[in-house]
Amino acid sequence: MKVNVKYFASIRESVGTGSEPLQTTATTLGALRDELIARGGAFAQSLARGRAVRVALNQVMSGEDAALTEGCEVAFFPPVTGG
Amino acid sequence: MTARVVIQTQDFDVGAEIAALRAQDKRVGAVCTFIGTVRDRNSAPTLGTGVSSLPPEGAVSPRGGPAAKHDDQTVLTMELEHYPGMTEKSIEDMIDAAFQRFDIYAARVIHRVGPLLPLDQIVLVVVTSAHRGESFQACEFLMDYLKTQAPFWKKEQTPEGARWVDARVSDDQALAKWGIASGNSAA
Fold first, then answer.
1. For residues A66 and A57, is the Cβ–Cβ distance under 8 A?
2. Which chain A residues touch B167 with a CB distance below 8 Å?
3. Measured distance CA(B37)–CA(B122) in Å, rounded
4. What ipTM is given for this predicted complex?
5. Which of residues 43-72 of A touch B (CB under 8 A)?
6. Contact across the interface for A80 and B150, Cβ inside 8 Å
7. Phi and psi at residue A15, in whole multiples of 5°?
8. Using one digit for the tens of pLDDT, what is the confidence trace for B127-172?
9. How far is residue B162's CA from residue B159's CA, in Å, rounded to a whole number?
10. Which helix or strand (DSSP H or E) is residue A73 part of?
11. In this structure, are residues B149 and B94 in contact, taking their beta carbons and an 8 Å threshold?
């Protein structure tokens, strides 16, 4: 299915883009993260397992077992530091 | 009616915001405000999860000693990034949660983004209630929630270079006291 992936802050800088449309066979957020890690390079490094990466699905903080839907918006970012 | 959540680059006038929130509400007997400002130094135990732009640990600093590990450095400027749309939505949800937990009449959150300097105001939370306890608590709850759940990220310019601010362990602990997990653990 088609999803729109966004990256923020240090992850955005590291992977070199703020967003990309993506065709994926993944059905969950966690599987999509693994698919991106499999690209290697900066993706593997900044999304690596064991690193605290927050994931939002359609602009809501979500767990990795959350299911992707056609055209959904997924965002990967480090723990937030506002306020 | 004024928006409950505003994300803006420009500064805000605390007095005007308080007056607007109190308006003509004669039930209000307490107004609690929190203002977050930009410090010129930064130090606290962090989660250590950021991807730093600084040299790796063990690299030699200009002073000749080991490079400082994200602590106690001078902050020259700060840049605040956010996730437009999700930011507003997440803070709206937090305000809904505050209304469910506390007997409050009104709440407003203003958060600045973009370039900021030490002394600048970053965030304003204003809450009104009949008695002080409820607005004190709701104000603290909103800030604890915002700190770990609203998608903002700070990047600081220091004499040693730029660095992304790391999330703090103490912020996760602050949220935990309300019975809410931060979700920041590694996976």
1. yes
2. 52, 78-81
3. 5
4. 0.96
5. 45-46, 49-54, 56, 59-61, 64
6. yes
7. -85, -10
8. 999 999 999 999 999 999 999 999 999 999 999 899 999 999 999 9
9. 8
10. strand A73-77
11. yes
